[in-house]
Design a protein that fits this description.
Elements lengths: L2 H46 L24 H34 L2 H13 L1 H77 L2 H47 L1
Pfam family, one: Promethin
Keywords: Membrane, Transmembrane, Transmembrane helix
Length: 249
């Protein structure tokens, strides 16, 4: 038998044996993979879920726990525009109510009824007065309102400017007053300390003596005034008694 035939026979046998082993081990491998897959899925689901006693996971930035939705800028702008549109009619109603109250306060209902009856009885004069009030009253009201607004604005500006000008002046003046007060007490304490240290309190005794002398003079003046008043009262009583005695006589 030649050597090539033997070698080819051995190669074919080896290939057949390898294919047989692979075909035999493949079902076993598939079986092991199919068996371990549920276990892997179970472990993954267990690790993904919250384990009792473990720290909770970080929540997302959105407030999903309280079910609160954060509105967008478009929604906020829409709500603001809606509120503004509702505010204009309310402002008009408030202005109309204020005008009616002012008219009712200025012209009571009884007088309004009397004016209405007079206007019906005299239609020419009533329409003339109404036209004049309509044509003249509006410019007059606008002028008065403008004057009041201008006066209010001018007053506010004047107050602000006064505060801006007067504020620093008052601050500087108060600081000067505090400094003057402090330096005055400092000089007084220094002079008193020098007097007690070098002069033995001579200036203090002299000053106390002058103060006591002035007090005594004031008390003496008050006593003299009281004595004069008592003397005058005595003279008045004496003159009144003398007059009564003369009248009796």
């Amino acid at each position: 038998m030649p050597l090539n035939t033997v070698t080819s026979g051995l190669g074919q046998a080896t290939n057949q044996a390898t294919n047989t082993v692979q075909s035999t081990t493949k079902p076993a491998t598939d079986t092991v993979q199919n068996t371990t897959k549920p276990v892997t899925d179970t472990v993954t689901s267990t690790t993904n879920s919250a384990v009792p006693g473990a720290f909770p996971k970080d929540e997302p930035p959105t407030n999903e726990r309280n079910n609160v939705t954060i509105p967008s800028w478009s929604a906020i702008w829409t709500n603001f525009v809606t509120w503004l549109k509702g505010l204009i009619p309310r402002g008009i109603d408030i202005f109309e109510a204020a005008v009616r109250r002012f008219v009712t306060w200025l012209i009571p209902p009884e007088r309004q009824a009397a004016m209405y009856r007079t206007a019906i009885e005299h239609p020419i004069a009533g329409t003339f007065i109404a036209a004049q009030l309509l044509c003249v009253g509006i410019p007059l009201v606008l002028f008065i309102a403008g004057t009041l607004i201008f006066a209010a604005v001018a007053m506010i500006v004047w107050v602000v400017l006064s505060l801006l000008i007067l504020g620093p002046i008052v601050l500087v003046a108060s600081l000067l007053g505090v400094s003057l007060w402090g330096w005055g007490w400092f000089v007084f304490g220094l002079v008193r300390w020098i007097d007690r240290l070098f002069l033995g309190g001579m200036m203090e005794r002299f000053w106390i003596a002058n103060v006591q002398k002035e007090k005594e003079e004031e008390e003496a003046r008050e006593r003299e005034k009281e004595e004069q008043e008592k003397a005058k009262e005595g003279e008045r009583l004496q003159t009144s008694t003398e007059r009564r005695a003369k009248r009796k006589v």
